Amino acid sequence: MSNKSDAVEKYRIGIDIGGTNIKFGIIDENNKIIGKSSIKTQVLLGWEKIIENIGKGVLTLLEKNKVPLLQCKSMGVGSPGVVDHKNGVLMYSNNLKWENVLLVEELNKYITIPTKLSNDANCAALGEAVAGRARGYQDVVMITLGTGVGGGIISDKKLFEGGIGGIEIGHMVLVVDGIKCSCGRNGCFESYSSATALVREARDAAIKNPQSLMNKIVKNDTGKINGATPFEAAKRGDIAGKKVVENYIKYLGEGIIDMINIFRPEIVLLSGGVCNQGKYLTDPINEYIKRHTYAGSRIHIPSVEVATLGNDAGLIGAANL
Amino acid sequence: MSNKSDAVEKYRIGIDIGGTNIKFGIIDENNKIIGKSSIKTQVLLGWEKIIENIGKGVLTLLEKNKVPLLQCKSMGVGSPGVVDHKNGVLMYSNNLKWENVLLVEELNKYITIPTKLSNDANCAALGEAVAGRARGYQDVVMITLGTGVGGGIISDKKLFEGGIGGIEIGHMVLVVDGIKCSCGRNGCFESYSSATALVREARDAAIKNPQSLMNKIVKNDTGKINGATPFEAAKRGDIAGKKVVENYIKYLGEGIIDMINIFRPEIVLLSGGVCNQGKYLTDPINEYIKRHTYAGSRIHIPSVEVATLGNDAGLIGAANL
Questions:
Q1: A7 pLDDT band (50/70/90 cuts)?
Q2: Which residues of chain B are within 8 Å of residue A292 when distances are taken between CB atoms?
Q3: pLDDT digits (tens, 9 = 90+) for B14-48
Q4: What is the arithmetic mean of pLDDT over A230-254?
Q5: Domain spans of chain B, in order of start
Q6: Which end of chain B has fewer CB within 10 Å, C or N?
Q7: B264 → closest Cβ in A92, A163, A296
Q8: Is the Cα dihedral A281, A282, A287, A289 positive or negative?
Q9: Which residues in chain B land under pLDDT 50?
Q10: DSSP label at A301?
Q11: What is the DSSP letter of A302?
Q12: A-chain residues within 8 Å CB-CB of B265?
């Protein structure tokens, strides 16, 4: 790859583009973050200016940490949206309002080291696989439960990118003709298992069941119901809350079984705010998938666990692209 | 890999284990089959004897074609069931009644060249990618519509195996709580899109609609209805037949969209008897997936086509493992 010795090129740069903030960091050979910073995304500036700001921000960070660019082996970028990882192009991002941006080429105007681009959910999975909860595993599925449902696949210790456009596990169907999804399809995994879906179901249930504890928890302001509300109510014996949680776990369980039957991971990781429920979420899910996984009595059924790196997963993963 | 020159090791051996027959063949550098033969599977003989027969059969085939084993670079085996491709173990096959058979190790007692094992659907996909309809493509999904639904994924020109146990795309769900599947789960892709499912739906519709042409086609013996019957009736304007075909295409279309959203192939291939319908099958499916694929207006939507190698796909694919 290079004439310089590996001992000199000991750092890598990771960039995690989000709708609100853009984070960047420098990691060492042990995937430890030795320095990081961030800027506001400021969508209105447009892609040229934003990428310039990223380039300059990274150079400033390197300087501050006394890391010469010569000691950086590579750079990776995680971005939301539809990505052409083979050519370093961000094909489309609704959050950023970007379309067919030659992100790698543009970024290399400021920092000229080998650079790769991938989807943000892929980067988070890779981060957890090299430095987080899935460290040491060869085959990993990570599912991010947020506004939508994203996912990343590690196969034989390498990120599995799929073809051009990237993996969109949130848009596999769980119910043909089911709940309308933002992607235009009906019944997607995302329409049942995102945090958005959990909140929608909890609000509906609270409104339909005025006596439900969920209403008391938010002092009858159902607009304040969040993903934790039905879990909290369920723990205190509330029947409507329990039903919301059970239903959420069932559909999430079905989506996870799909991922197991398709990818056969050794471990499945979940991330996102709903994971704060810890074992109240993972115990019933592990129970559910044991009953329904294909050839479950003859193969290893992976454990479903909570990811551990939090916001740093994307940064560390991007640096490992 | 070896001290012998590549020019000398110009052949590869492929073995395709089926429930009825076991086929083996020798292919050259251009993936042309230069000789093939087969034996009956004879499940009752047990795995040791069957593998011995395979080994001896391959040696006889080599002799007959005057190919010394020294000129064979590698051997590959495609098998039904749950496969540990990393260790060459057939973990479980319902058809063969085999459980945890060290297939590669056992076969190497008779033929000692580098040997790999994979799932039969994977081998068929690989065969089509190196020598059939998907030749020249980097990212391919192939779906086999038979008694069940199987699938193989080619990513960046390489077979994607997933983790231990192998890919089972037939057992991803299309409808949570849907039609009971043979795997124990409800609503699997297989329960809607296999040839078995098509025949089941056609028979039900024929019985419910005594005036349907489907009954005339089989002279009122609904036991004779097969996958072609509803298509034939539909072509002649039969409403019940049309409904069966439209429904089949809808669910198959949904499963294919899942595969596209997850793997982003450049082309999707279908194989199995129902593919004899040609454009009567693929035209409406291509129409369907255009309407529902994620980010469909911004990414390339792959064409759905019929595989071309037929029974040789598995053999050629196995030889390319």
A1: low
A2: 184-185
A3: 999 998 899 999 999 999 999 999 999 999 999 99
A4: 98
A5: 11-135+312-319, 140-306
A6: N
A7: A163
A8: positive
A9: 1-6
A10: P
A11: P
A12: 163
Name A84's Cβ contacts closer than 8 Å, sequence gap at least 6: A90, A91, A164, A165
> With b meaning 16 or more CB within 10 Å and e meaning fewer, what string describes B98-135?
beebbbbebbbeebebebbbbbbbbbbbbbbbbbbbbe
- Which band of pLDDT confidence, cut at 50, 70 and 90, is reported for residue A190? very high
Q: What percent of chain A has pLDDT over 70?
A: 98
Take residue A261 and report the two structure tokens written for it: 């039957």
Residue B279 CB: number of other CB atoms within 10 A? 10
**Two tokens at A309?**
């790196």
- Chain B residue at shortest CA distance from A98: B298
**Interface probe with B: pick from A92, A160, A173, most Cβ of B within 10 Å:** A173
B297: nearest CA partner in chain A: A92
pLDDT higher than threshold 80 for residue A215: yes
A140-306 matches A11-135+312-319 in CATH topology: yes
* pTM score, whole prediction: 0.93
Chain A residues touching B294 at Cβ < 8 A: 168, 171, 183, 185
Q: What is the distance between the alpha carbons of residues B284 and B247, in angstroms, rounded to a whole number? A: 11
User: Mean pLDDT, chain A, as a whole number?
Assistant: 94
Number of C-beta neighbours around residue B194 at 10 A: 26
Does the distance separating the beta carbons of A175 and B176 come in below 8 Å?
yes
CATH number for region B140-306: 3.30.420.40
**Does residue B75 contact residue B106 with C-beta atoms inside 8 Å?**
no
Look up residue A109 and give its DSSP letter: T
pLDDT at A25: 97
What residues in B contact A250, CB-CB < 8 Å? 176
Q: Are the beta carbons of B127 and B170 closer than 8 angstroms?
A: no
B91 interaction partners in chain A (CB closer than 8 Å): 295, 298-299
B304, B264, B129, B298: which is closest to A163 by C-alpha? B264
- Given B82, B174, B265, which is nearest A173 (Cβ)? B174
Dihedral (CA of A289, A291, A293, A295) sign? positive
Q: Determine, for residues A262 and B163 on separate chains, whether the beta-carbon distance falls below 8 Å.
A: no
Query: What is the pLDDT at residue B4?
Result: 47
What one-character DSSP code corresponds to residue A175?
B
Cβ-based neighbours of A5, under 8 Å, separated by 6 or more:
none
Token pair 């012998």 is found at B4
Which of A294, A298, A300 would best serve as a mutation to test chain B binding (most B beta carbons within 10 A)? A294
Close Cβ partners of A242 (under 8 Å, ≥ 6 residues apart):
A233, A234
> Which tens digits make up the pLDDT trace of B219-277?
999 999 999 999 999 999 999 999 999 999 999 999 999 999 999 999 999 999 999 99
Q: What is the third-level CATH fold of B11-135+312-319?
A: Nucleotidyltransferase; domain 5 (3.30.420)
| Interface contact flag, A262 B99, Cβ < 8 Å | no
- Which of A172, A177, A179, A289 to mutate against chain B (most B CBs within 10 Å)? A172
